[in-house]
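During the no-cost extension, the postdoctoral fellow (Dr. R.K.) reprocessed legacy sequence entries with the updated structure-token encoder. One reprocessed record is reproduced below for audit purposes.
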Amino acid sequence: MMEELIAQLPRFDYFTQNWHYSQTNWLPFCWQGFQQTTRYTYILNDLQDMGNVWAGFHNNVRRNCKSASERHQITLRDDLPLSDFLSLNRMTFQRQGLKVPYSDEYVRRIDEACQKQNCRKYYIAVDREGRRHAGCYVVWDKNSAYGLINGSDPALRSSGALSLCLWQAIQDAARVTQKFDFEGSMLQPVERFVRHFGAVQTPYFNISKMPSRLLRVRRALQSGIKEE
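Re-encoded structure tokens follow.
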């Protein structure tokens, strides 16, 4: 079946695809000259008992949730405009000096499609002064919920609001699906943050191929490696 799928690919200069962690055999792609890189996500595999989920959180996560709700008097809103969430998401990239790798319009198209299927929800943490501290955007299917996008105001990150958002998202996910996938990151600070929710590290494959010599040269120059 994989060989048939590969045969149907159009001519391309660059191919990259992240596979679902349940797919562990990429040999037919290897035989066709593709490359594989292992990446990691973090998954809560059982949402049946929220007491056990909460107990599995690192002390920092539990402390952040309590601090956000009790000390900072933060409430979670799911009725604010998507533009408010996108603003928080943009701040996260700006804080790291990075460009957002997708457009607002792209997110809005995803949101519209998921809203029609009733399979998405986003949360924004707001304090008594109306300031937006953080937010998370979650989608789901019958198997799992996925933490698709997060965001936070750099000036308000110490409030613990993002932890509170995700805790609420996990509780709501338990009503509609079986697992919660944090869509883990290879960035060290992000990995540490999601790991503290007691989730299980789970490998998945990134499959790629770059037939274009021009792109290979460009990548080599960008990484400071001389193309052979």
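The chain has a mean pLDDT of 94. The chain has two domains: 2-6+13-39+206-222, 47-177. The remaining legacy entries will be reprocessed before the final report is submitted.
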